[in-house]
């Protein structure tokens, strides 16, 4: 088996970026998302309800950005010729989520839209010996209009003996 | 102070200290698995999953599976929807920022609450700032968040 290079915190570079990820939004993908989070607001499922709410028709829920513009660290890491800590053959470990901040940029996402997004390493940071990586995901629709951007921070390496959740009181 | 409802809320009537209706969410391994299957596109090769692989998760920092943090963000957005029209949450200038504080495990029940902390005008927009929190049945804070909606 060829040796694998793990994308450790010291390997990561601010500015590392994934190839574009393309997602076509449909009524079915919106319905699936609503089912996944047990969201029953008819604005996302019923054209009449959406129009009554002031929209031109069904729209994607706010946090569906995590689906149509997913955080693609695997692709970013592969572009560097590495594997994620979760993919390591020996002693795989998780790099759990710690925070996210979403900014909506004005363009609604509707069935038929094709969203293109990229994931970039925005910042590497440390707190009390724990090491974090914050990714920035930016998304545009098929007309080139900015849709949303959000950060997604993960704990990448733990300081020994610490409860990382005590250390994340910091905005990404 | 009052409780806000999406059908009746108005910028003029909102006061600092107003609250949002409480939203209660429970996770099970089935709901965690469903989120992974329905909300996350694509497959990850040889990925050891903290959320859907109990044997791997038992060896990790949480000692078991937990939900995906972004699912908790979605519950906070649902909390906002109880008090504000969806267009106010999706408008340019709207924001939602969350920090995970404790894991949301299978079997946990978390209550999400929110409070208005400011109302202001900025660049011609009428903005409402909120603080949101998710608390489990043990009294642990699972998530803290801030949000801005545009009314």
SSE blueprint:
The complex is a heterodimer of chains A (172) and B (151).
Chain A: E1 21-24, H1 27-37, H2 47-52, H3 65-68, H4 73-79, E2 97-104, E3 114-127, E4 130-140, E5 146-157
Antiparallel strand pairs in A: 1-3, 2-5, 3-4, 4-5
Chain B: E1 23-26, H1 29-39, H2 54-58, H3 69-83, H4 86-90, E2 95-100, E3 109-122, E4 125-136, E5 141-150
Antiparallel strand pairs in B: 1-3, 2-5, 3-4, 4-5
Task: Describe the structure in your own words.
The complex is a heterodimer of chains A (172) and B (151). By secondary structure, chain A is an alpha+beta fold. Chain A is built from four helices and five strands, in the order βααααββββ. In chain A, strands 1-3-4-5-2 form a five-stranded antiparallel sheet. Chain B has a domain at 23-27 and 67-150: Thiol Ester Dehydrase, Chain A (Roll), CATH 3.10.129.10. Chain B has helices at 29-39, 54-58, 69-83, 86-90, and strands at residues 23-26, 95-100, 109-122, 125-136, 141-150. Chain B starts with 22 loop residues before the first strand and ends with a strand. The interface between A and B is large, with 50 and 52 residues. Strand 2 of chain A pairs antiparallel with strand 2 of chain B, so a sheet runs across the interface.
């Amino acid at each position: 088996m060829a040796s694998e290079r793990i994308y450790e915190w010291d390997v990561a570079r601010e500015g590392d970026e994934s190839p574009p990820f393309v997602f076509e939004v449909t009524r079915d993908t919106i319905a699936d998302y609503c089912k996944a989070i047990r969201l029953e607001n008819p604005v996302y499922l019923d054209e009449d309800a959406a129009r009554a709410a002031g929209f031109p028709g069904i729209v994607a829920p706010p946090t569906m950005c995590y689906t149509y513009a997913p955080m693609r660290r695997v692709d970013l890491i592969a572009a560097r010729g590495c594997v994620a800590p979760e993919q390591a053959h020996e002693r795989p470990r998780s790099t759990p989520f710690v925070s996210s901040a979403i900014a909506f940029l004005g363009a609604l996402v509707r069935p038929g839209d094709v969203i293109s997004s990229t994931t970039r390493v925005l910042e590497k940071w440390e707190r009390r010996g724990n090491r974090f990586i914050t990714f920035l995901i930016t998304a545009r629709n098929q007309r080139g209009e900015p849709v949303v951007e959000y950060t997604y921070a993960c704990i990448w390496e733990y300081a020994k003996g610490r409860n990382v959740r005590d250390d994340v009181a910091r905005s990404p | 102070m009052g409780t806000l409802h999406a059908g009746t809320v108005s910028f003029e009537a909102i006061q600092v200290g107003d609250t949002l209706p409480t939203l209660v969410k429970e996770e099970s391994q089935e709901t965690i698995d469903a989120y992974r299957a329905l909300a996350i596109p694509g497959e990850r090769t040889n990925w050891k999953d903290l959320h859907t692989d109990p044997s791997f998760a038992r060896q990790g920092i949480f000692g078991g599976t937990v939900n995906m943090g972004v699912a908790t963000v979605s519950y906070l957005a649902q909390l906002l929807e109880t008090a504000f029209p969806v267009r106010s949450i999706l408008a340019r200038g709207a924001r939602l920022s969350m920090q995970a504080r404790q894991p949301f495990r299978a079997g946990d029940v978390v209550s999400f609450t929110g409070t208005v902390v400011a109302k202001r005008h900025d660049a011609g927009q009428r903005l409402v700032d909120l603080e949101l929190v998710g608390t489990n049945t043990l009294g642990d804070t699972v998530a803290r968040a801030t949000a801005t909606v545009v009314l």
